[in-house]
Amino acid sequence: MARSAGRSAVAAAAYRSGSELVDERTGLVHDYTRKGGVVSAEIIAPDGGSAERGALWNAAELAENRKDSRTAREWIVALPAELDAGQRRELAVSFGAELARRYGVAVDVAIHEPDREGDNRNHHAHILTTTRRVSRGAAGELVMGDKSSIELADKKRRELGLGPAADEVKAIRQLWEQTANRALERAGSTERIDARSLKDQGIDREATTHLGPVASEMERRGRISDRGDGNRQVMANNEQRQGLTAQIIDLKTERERRAKARQVEALPAADLVKAWDGRKAELYMGYRQRAERLESRVDQQIQAISTKRRNAEANHAKKRPVEPTGLLAAFKRSSYEKLMTEWCATAKRIKAWKVGRENDLRKRLERVRCYLTPGGGFSVRDAERTLQKERPEWAARLPQARDEVQREKEAKKQELLAQKRERQSLQKGRPGRGGHGL
Length: 438
What we know:
Elements: H1 9-17, E1 20-22, E2 29-31, E3 38-44, H2 53-62, E4 72-78, H3 85-103, E5 107-112, E6 124-130, E7 132-136, E8 142-147, H4 154-159, H5 165-186, H6 212-220, H7 226-266, H8 269-317, H9 329-352, H10 355-372, H11 378-390, H12 392-429
């Protein structure tokens, strides 16, 4: 965030945090208290403490004298939609704390909601860092020190034994990837992010440019901005690329399909039929085994319900109230009838316990046993349908292949019959052993 471009760290902090700050260097008041979409904003110092936003960024501005000074650095990160609001905040703050620790700078983390007219999953964070290392003053305020290592020119970095500044940017990308993926893992999500550039990922797509506060406000009010136009052109280019990619993929799929079809055509008919029947037998056995396991499991569930009900009925029968007899029977009658009414109600509940569930299970068991009936043929048809989806190129040629195999069998049979008739004819024409010799 360079002063030469007319940027101000105080103004940027006010906009991103949705607050009102006074720039002591220029006297301008930056009031963004009516700006919506700011979820949270907090300051993080290297020592883990906080600071007052206005004091921090005014100190950052006043520490620089040159017209082309950089007063703040901004990182914008997309927060995974798979995380909830609390997890997104924890991730952004954790990443900000890592930057503060790594470079000894103060960090201002502001989380924003998605734009109303954009992708509603685009939760993101604006992370402003001071360009100078900070420390605590006597009164507890943050004091600006030397420039942080990431702000140094490559010549100075070489003198200090450091690599080029571009390496720092790659390192921060990797840091964000690791921090975000740990957060996704803790949240139980299988999604992962890749912080490499699109080019490094091998993705043929142009990246859009962040609009920034001025262009964002213009676009929000329906006015066209140069950056907005640029992004719209990029999106149009990407859509065209996707269309071409889809055509390429479709062409590749069609080539693969035709190659498989040629392989099947080259396969002898008998081999194709043998392969089809073998695979169908495997699928058939798989369906039957699963059905048999289901049959056993359902039967066990039915038996468990019946056993529990019988045991409950037997135990309850032992608790049947004893009918009073003798001289005091009349006095005990009312109490007995009350106990008997309660006992009968409980017996009725026990008898009806899970009857509906048991009936459903019995119907299910009946369907499974029907499926397993040799004459039912359900598992055979299931295997056939599955194989047709699995090997459509086989299915397409199978009828022709079966006809060829049948014709070959018939031809072989006719050939054997002809050979048999020929042998029989030769045997009839041959003279017997009892004939006259010379």
